[in-house]
Amino acid sequence: MPYVFWFVGGTDPQVWAQAQQTQSIANIPANHSSQFTLHLPGTLQAGLEAMLVAALIWSAVG
């Protein structure tokens, strides 16, 4: 059975923009850090859209 593993960004867009400006993206806590925080609205939307599109494509070609 086929499977996929996707990485869906979970960082608050404002935190990301600030880190870009200060060239400190590497300092943003990753998902296994105790400092990690998830930007839930954006993450849920991106993840659901990706999964729905994949399911629609899979059903069309399968």
Notes on the protein architecture:
It is a single chain. The protein has 62 residues and is mostly helical. The chain is built from two helices and no strands. It has helices at residues 13-21, 40-61. The longest helix is centred in the last third of the chain and has 22 residues, at 40-61.
The radius of gyration is 15 Å
What is the residue-mean pLDDT, rounded to a whole number? 90
Specify the biggest β-sheet.
none
Stretches with pLDDT under 50, minimum 5 residues:
none
> Structural class, please?
mainly alpha
Tally of individual helices = 2
Helix content: 40-55%
How many beta-strand elements? 0
Q: Give the distance, in angstroms, between the N- and C-terminal Cα atoms.
A: 13 Å
Instruction: Spell out the helices and strands N to C.
Output: HH
What's the quaternary structure here?
Answer: single chain
Tell me the overall shape: elongated
Strand content is under 5%
Write the layout of secondary structure elements.
Blueprint: H1 13-21, H2 40-61
